[in-house]
Design brief:
Blueprint lengths: L3 H14 L1 H34 L9 E6 L14 H8 L4 E7 L4 E7 L2 E10 L3 H4 L3 E5 L4 H6 L3 E5 H8 L8 E4 L2 E10 L10 E4 H8 L7 E6 L5 H13 L7 E5 L1 H43 L1 H9 L4 H38 L5 H31 L3 H5 L3
Helix pairs in contact: 1-11, 2-9, 2-11, 2-12, 9-11, 9-12, 11-12
C-alpha cells in the first residue's frame, strides 16, 4: 500500500506537470474563492458603511419618538428624562440616541432691513449623526457647546443664503429672541429636507431660555444596521415604561423604506452568490473533466501499476489526492487574491475587517475548495480504480 507521504508527493508532482492543462480550472476556482472570501470578510464592513450612508434610502435605520400633542393632558409635562435616554443608548443594536425639542420656535429676524421668520429648534450633539447631517462649511456644535449652554447656532443652507447671500455666514451673529447667537456652521445633507431653512441651537440653551415650553420631547434613534431596527423598535416601549410614563408615546419607523432596502440588498447578495457559485461550479466541472481526461491519458500507466501489485484503493487514492491538490492550490491562490481584494476594498470603505475574521473565512474557503476537489474527483478516481489491468495495458 502506498504511503501518505508518497501519495502527496506523486500527486503534487502530477499537478505541476499538468499545470498548463489545469490553468483554467485553477483560475476559475481561485477567482470564485477570492470572491466568496471577499464577500464574507467584507460583509459586515459593507453593511456598516451602507447603514451609515442611508440618505438615498430614506434613513431606514432611523427611529423617531415623541408624544402625541393632541392627546396627552396639558397638565402633565411630556419629555424624555435623562435616565430614559441613557437606557435607550444601552439597548443592543442602538448606534446613536439624540434628544431634541419637538416644538419649533418661529423667530422674526431683521437682516439688511429685511424681515425673516426663522424656525429654531434645540438639539443635542448627537442630532447630526442620528440624522446623517454634515457641515457644508464651518462645524457643527458638539457636547462641549451643549454642556456650556453656549449662545451659538448652526443654520441650514437655504437660511444661510437668505440671510447672508454670497457672504460667508461663519462667525456672523443673528438675533434669536433677545440675544445674539454666533453662527458656527452651515449644515447640509440629503436628510435635512425642509430643515435647510432652520436654525439649530444647543438643546440646553433652548430649554434655559424658553422654560417649560421647550423640553427633550423628541428622540432620534439611529440603529447600527437594518437588522437591528425591528428588535430595537420592539424594545422601545418597555424601555421607556421602565423609567417614566409612556402614555401617548408615538414611535415612528420607516417600515416601507426598510423593507425596500432589505429587498434590494437581498437581490444584490443573491446575484453575487449565484455568480460565485457558478464560477465554483465551473471550476468543479473543470476538475471532473480534467481528471477524466487524465484517467484516459494514463490508462496504460494504471494498467502497469495494477500489474505490479497496486490495489484499486491505491489508484483511487492517487487520483483523489491529485484532484484535492489541484483544488487546494487554487484555493490558496484564491485566498491570496481575496486578501488583496479585501485590502483594496477596505481602502475605499475606510474600514478593515479584523485579521481573525479574515483568517476564519480563509480557512472555511480552503476547506470548501478541498471538499469540492474531493467530490468532483471521486468519480474519475473510482473509474480509474476499476479498470482491468490487462485491458488497460493494451489500451491505445
Amino acid at each position: 500500500m502506498i504511503t501518505v507521504r508518497d501519495l502527496i508527493h506523486i500527486s503534487v508532482r502530477q499537478v505541476f506537470r499538468q499545470r498548463r492543462r489545469s490553468l483554467g480550472v485553477v483560475l476559475a476556482i481561485a477567482l470564485g474563492t477570492a470572491g466568496l472570501l471577499a464577500v464574507m470578510a467584507m460583509g459586515d464592513e459593507v453593511k456598516k458603511k451602507l447603514n451609515h450612508d442611508l440618505d438615498l434610502l430614506g434613513g431606514a435605520t432611523l427611529i423617531k419618538m415623541g408624544f402625541d400633542e393632541e392627546k396627552h393632558p396639558g397638565t402633565r409635562d411630556k419629555f424624555f428624562t435623562d435616565e430614559t435616554q441613557e437606557a435607550l443608548r444601552a439597548l443592543q443594536g442602538v448606534d446613536v440616541v439624540s434628544a431634541a425639542t419637538e416644538k419649533i420656535n418661529w423667530v422674526p429676524m431683521f437682516v439688511n432691513d429685511k424681515k425673516y421668520v426663522v424656525p429654531v429648534q434645540g438639539v443635542d450633539a448627537g442630532y447630526w449623526s442620528a440624522n446623517s447631517l454634515e457641515p457644508v462649511s464651518g462645524f457643527l456644535f458638539d457636547k462641549s457647546f451643549v454642556g456650556k449652554r453656549a449662545l451659538v447656532c448652526v443654520i441650514g443652507e437655504e437660511l444661510a443664503e437668505s440671510l447672508f447671500g454670497e457672504e460667508n455666514a461663519l462667525g456672523n451673529y443673528i438675533h434669536i429672541g433677545k440675544e445674539m447667537y454666533k453662527v458656527l456652521g452651515v449644515v447640509g445633507g440629503l436628510q435635512i429636507g425642509q430643515r435647510k431653512s432652520y436654525a439649530f441651537v444647543p438643546l440646553t440653551t433652548a430649554i434655559d431660555r424658553s422654560g417649560k415650553d421647550y423640553r427633550s420631547d423628541r428622540i432620534y434613534l439611529r440603529c447600527k444596521t437594518w437588522d437591528d431596527v425591528k428588535p430595537v423598535a420592539d424594545a422601545l416601549l418597555a424601555t421607556v415604561k421602565a423609567h417614566q410614563s409612556a402614555d401617548y408615546l408615538v414611535i415612528e419607523v420607516s417600515w416601507e423604506q426598510l423593507h425596500r432596502l432589505v429587498l434590494i440588498v437581498w437581490w444584490v447578495q443573491l446575484f453575487i452568490f449565484v455568480s460565485i457559485g457558478a464560477t465554483l461550479t465551473l471550476g468543479g466541472f473543470g476538475i471532473w473533466n480534467g481528471m477524466m481526461s487524465s484517467v484516459i491519458a494514463r490508462t496504460r500507466e494504471i494498467g502497469l501499476k495494477k500489474a505490479m501489485g497496486a490495489e484499486g484503493r491505491d489508484i483511487k487514492s492517487q487520483f483523489l489526492c491529485e484532484a484535492f491538490c489541484l483544488s487546494l492550490s487554487a484555493a490558496i491562490l484564491g485566498v491570496v487574491l481575496g486578501y488583496w481584494v479585501v485590502e483594496f476594498t477596505s481602502h475605499f470603505l475606510g474600514s478593515t475587517p479584523s485579521r481573525d475574521v479574515f483568517m476564519n473565512y480563509a480557512g472555511m474557503s480552503i476547506v470548501f475548495s478541498g471538499l469540492l476537489g474531493l467530490v468532483t474527483g471521486y468519480y474519475p478516481a473510482l473509474r480509474a480504480s476499476r479498470l482491468d489491468a490487462v485491458t488497460a495495458i493494451r489500451f491505445e
